[in-house]
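Key idea: predict the complex, not the pieces.
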Amino acid sequence: MFTLTEPTLLLDKQKCIRNIQMIVEKAQKNNIILRPHFKTHQAHEIGRWFRIEGVTKITVSSLKMAEYFAQDGWNDITVAFPVNVHEKERINRLASTMTLNLLVVSPENIGWLAREVKHSLNIFIEVDNGYHRTGVSTTDFDTIDKILLEIAKHKHLHFAGFLGHAGHSYKSAGDKNKILAVHQESSSLMIPLKEKYKTKYPDLVLSTGDTPTCSVAESFSGIDEIRPGNLVFYDVTQEFIGSCSLDQVAVAMACPVVAIYPERNEVVVHGGGVHFSKDSLTQRNGTVSYGNVVTLHEKGWSTAETGMYIKSLSQEHGVIHAKKEIAEKIKIGDFLGILPIHSCLTVDAMRSYLTTDGELITTYS
Amino acid sequence: MFTLTEPTLLLDKQKCIRNIQMIVEKAQKNNIILRPHFKTHQAHEIGRWFRIEGVTKITVSSLKMAEYFAQDGWNDITVAFPVNVHEKERINRLASTMTLNLLVVSPENIGWLAREVKHSLNIFIEVDNGYHRTGVSTTDFDTIDKILLEIAKHKHLHFAGFLGHAGHSYKSAGDKNKILAVHQESSSLMIPLKEKYKTKYPDLVLSTGDTPTCSVAESFSGIDEIRPGNLVFYDVTQEFIGSCSLDQVAVAMACPVVAIYPERNEVVVHGGGVHFSKDSLTQRNGTVSYGNVVTLHEKGWSTAETGMYIKSLSQEHGVIHAKKEIAEKIKIGDFLGILPIHSCLTVDAMRSYLTTDGELITTYS
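Result:
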């Protein structure tokens, strides 16, 4: 299919497009806005695959990434990260030409935005719908009202709605009912906000929806917008959580074998922390994996169980657990496929893909 | 000193140069070759600081990195990673113009090198001096002799010596005597190889020496060459191991505060897995840290204890533990300094530095 010489992040375009179509159809069925998070794939080309399916609004995790996607014609972008009060230049540049939606977490943010930004801006109030990372408590009406009062003072600032991220869905460990319970609870924390504020702000949007809940839930009643990111590729963690099957994982790293130690049940590949980053997963059998080995073939990879996984990572080395009888069949120079534990960070480390059709795709940085 | 707007990796050039001078002097005193590992800093500019101190030979972790440093005039480079039999083009390109030293771990490697490489090459046999990652056992004379026999068949291949990496020194957890014991044991596994083979190969080099052992040991008798990398910057892990004091750590990330939650003893900064990578350290008090907070000032940072550390990292968010009374004094927009857990992977994620003198330095990729 293509010639490999070094650690290479393979992308199965067909699987990826099926993942995109699945969520596009689900959003259409529910009549909600799909604003996919592009922090996972970070690539113009893959963004265009969403555009072909009708997506027009996107989410990113930094203003720098917003600039990158604006360059490819995206003109309605939410930066799903609390506004950084030092980035007035990027904000002004972006807001002058497109619909820029920013997150605020405190009334002080508004004073700064009003003063430093000269263009029309949409403001989401980030609320904490159960994850407890960032955001105003969904019952802290005092703070919410203060923020709304501040926004109302400035003509170029527009209240867009409430945005939450139920990241605690990632702790569901294979129990779809737990994911659905997080979906239910996190939505039900936000829905009363719409009831309370919709008279004054009839267009306000409730935005939530991470990869686990968007993958498992079929109904999103009361919610207006979802922002899943990881599901464009999925990964071993998402399969573990229960969001997907391994066959839906659309990326795999190809790593060349450089050393073989059957007597230690180990094989060493070129593929380390600089390729995968360092996220790990404690598997059901208690072993810790930094990536699960699959078998590469002409057109991609098979996800049939190999029993092999990365047991440790240094900067460039990946040490793979492989039973003696399996290790003995592997040769120096063979390429092993490895499904990443966390595809977002793997993509960020690699910064390019090779599709299984042989096309090279680069990311933004 | 400089204007910060986003997560920025600060580099204290004075501290860095002191670290470089310390090891240069130690190598001179011991009359051994210093071949520093450049995988940590990955920057032409910082390489030149070594050159000023008289260093002429370097180590890198990939052929790609060798190409980058060759472009800046380095002409004696060891790639301290088992040779990847798919990279014949890079090997030929490099070997045609400079002294390229490669690592082999099996006799098959030699047949491939002899066949595919047309230029003069130096070959180190990688030996396992106790870390058990890669390398031939130091007592597996059968394999060593096979490799030497293969090398001898080819005029353009030259046996350079034995190379080991005592990475288990990283498990010493604050006990300098343990580091010295690893130094002693790992050296004593290699020294008999010289005794055995020096008659036939009078110039053979014994190469070892990681950051912990090179920092703590004063004597390197029997060893010819050391290759420490991390000590150019050090990090929180090295302080924990006992290799350095926190005042020797030459890099700190500056991260803007974006949200404050005194009631949860937390502050959130822009600074996540894409900035630090994901290495963590279980501290002496049992808490897990992804980076320790220091106080930034005009000319750099103070390492006085702040009690703050990164307790969790997502892609862009860093959640910092900060006691209520401390969190209450922090304002949105403040910059916090964060000493990285693992400076090598942080540099690899960031790909640029800002020195405390205001100079921007970029890395190779």
